Amino acid sequence: MKKLRKFAQLLFAIAPIVVLSNSTHAFSKEPIPAVPAATVSTITSSAGFSASNAAALDVALRTATLKAGVVSMSAAIATRGELRWAGSYGWADIESRALASPSTRYRTGSVAKPITAMAMMRLVDRGLLELDTPVGTSIAGLTEESRRITPRQLAAHVSGIRHYALMEILSSSVGFNGPKHYASVAEGLDSFIGDRLRFVPGTNFLYSTWGYSLLSRKLELAAGSTFPQILQTFVFEPCAMQDTAVDGIAPMKSRASFYQAESGSYSLADPMDTSNRIAGGGLVSTPSDLVRLAICAEKDSFLSPAARKTMWTPAVLANGQTNEQNYALGWRIDTSTRLFGKDKPTAIIHHGGQQEGGASFLAITPAIGVSVAVMTNSGTSAARQAVQDTAYELIRQLNGIENSGPLAGPPEHSKTAYTLQTAVGRKTNHPAELAVAIERHAFQMMHVPAVHEITD
């Protein structure tokens, strides 16, 4: 019996290795083909935003994509509540040689969580949901201890529900019979709903996508609608997020092909079914739609000031301490030294995500009135870091473009966030001169002070 138990433990230990070694991205990396065309960009607002401004951002995005060695990157920027620029560089699909465009859809990964949080707070505003009322017996299959969990605790990752395990992710991508599909949010809860909690709710922090799956079921019961319909009614439609949708295995219009890529090499990503974790990582979107979400988050017509304050206040544990990740409800709230250096810490409200075939990052900087989103169809850890680095770089570039008023860069940061004019060495509005100057210095500008805020 003891030998049998040891054999079972060994089998469980090597199973992930066996499955991973047979996945499509374990072997046969190929070099990413050179992109023949320049960055596609769209100027969505002409108010104070010229062709030379767009050219500067185009160059920064192209440089960042090539430096990261990913298949493509797409980005968008909003200032003062208006979408100003969207651009892309690289391949939406290598095989067909289809270039990425600002309307190409990418996987959001965990950036689905702030989207879910926005839907939740709109239900709160309408009196359909109480954040601190336990879920109780309304959800079938919950253990006695889990019935005490509240929606607030689920959204802040302090519920005690575990995160998904490696084998559970593999079953949704590789699997022994292909990716497993769940017909409903309720069906998808079977993965974890009977498990013991890792701690008493509210006493500790444990990042948990399964917690968001349970939250989405609670939202369904509160609204009397399916979770995808809740997102459509309460977030996508009012925020004009026309390119955001629930991901799936079936072909989807304008969706990028997915890869595992870094350092200029790629392989195809395995198919993935995220039907059991839509709320925490099962959406596709565009950077433009994500900054539209950010714009909505700051509008009183979308969320009441009280709801917004609640959503953006880091959760406090039972011992009176703020949780270790400064996690609020669906968003991380940090003071970053990465944007403008240690002498100019900047408040940033953000979330990132990474999964098979994709990585994304969304950031709001209220003090300077800028929101930015960056996405890629490469799903490696390096790609996840690259989208965050690129988001910060685009904010620094924009700070240089709009070098007066509320976006003015701090003098003490002049060595790392130079303006477009100083990059050229004299006054000019010529797009070609600006582009050459920025590209010449782009790699230097990507080296910024070490970041201390959390990435996921």
Low-confidence stretches: 1-27, 404-455
Which outline best applies? globular
- Structural class given helices, strands, pairing? alpha+beta
Strands, count? 14
**Helix count from the secondary structure assignment:** 14
CATH architecture: 3-Layer(aba) Sandwich
**The level-1 CATH class:** Alpha Beta
Order of helices and strands: HEEHEEEEHHHHHHEEEHEHHEEEEHHH
State the domain count. 1
**What's the gyration radius in Å?**
22 Å
Largest sheet: number of strands, sense, barrel closure: 8 strands, antiparallel
Report on the structure:
With 456 residues, the protein is of the alpha+beta class. The chain has one domain (38-89, 105-445): DD-peptidase/beta-lactamase superfamily (Beta-lactamase, 3-Layer(aba) Sandwich), CATH 3.40.710.10. The chain has helices spanning 2-21, 51-68, 112-125, 151-155, 166-173, 185-188, 209-223, 227-236, 278-281, 287-297, 305-311, 381-401, 420-424, 431-445; strands at 30-31, 40-43, 72-79, 82-93, 98-99, 106-107, 245-246, 259-262, 265-268, 283-285, 332-336, 346-355, 358-365, 370-376. A hairpin with a 2-residue loop joins β8 (259-262) and β9 (265-268). α2 (51-68) runs parallel beside α14, α3 runs parallel beside α7 (209-223) and α3 packs across α8. The longest helix is centred in the last third of the chain and has 21 residues, at 381-401.
